[in-house]
Amino acid sequence: MHKRWAGAVLVTAFLAGCDRGDHPGNIGKPAPEFVMNDGAQTVDLDKLRGRIVVLNLWATWCAPCVEELPSLLELQRRMPQLAVVGVSTDQDEDVYRHFLVQHHVDLLTVRDADQRVNALYGTVQIPETYIIDRNGIIRRKFIGAQDWTGPEITDYLSKL
Description:
five-stranded mixed β-sheet; disordered N terminus
């Protein structure tokens, strides 16, 4: 009986952790500003003002992140007016750099091993992606891997 109860508690805790709400609290609010330099590239969110930003929080060891990467790369190719920006939580710089070369990642992406950007945005599980409008306002949040070339997303982005 004790094992059954403990299992139910674990399942309940797991499901509660997955429920991050239908309407995140930061939608419609200014995107937290940050400047991140990883020694190879710099992302300054303020300098991207005037463009639609697709801010993807990811890591090389995250299977859903790797799954959606080809469509993010294709989105950037199809819609060059967007700024597709990646912020990786990878700890190992060599693994991260090798991954970028191996997968031909030509997006603006930086490594944030201390997860400062994740903390700013309240991200606890990756991948998460924020759509930030030209005025720096968060318009939408995607949780989990997406097909970034699907008509729903590309139509939404083209209307912003």
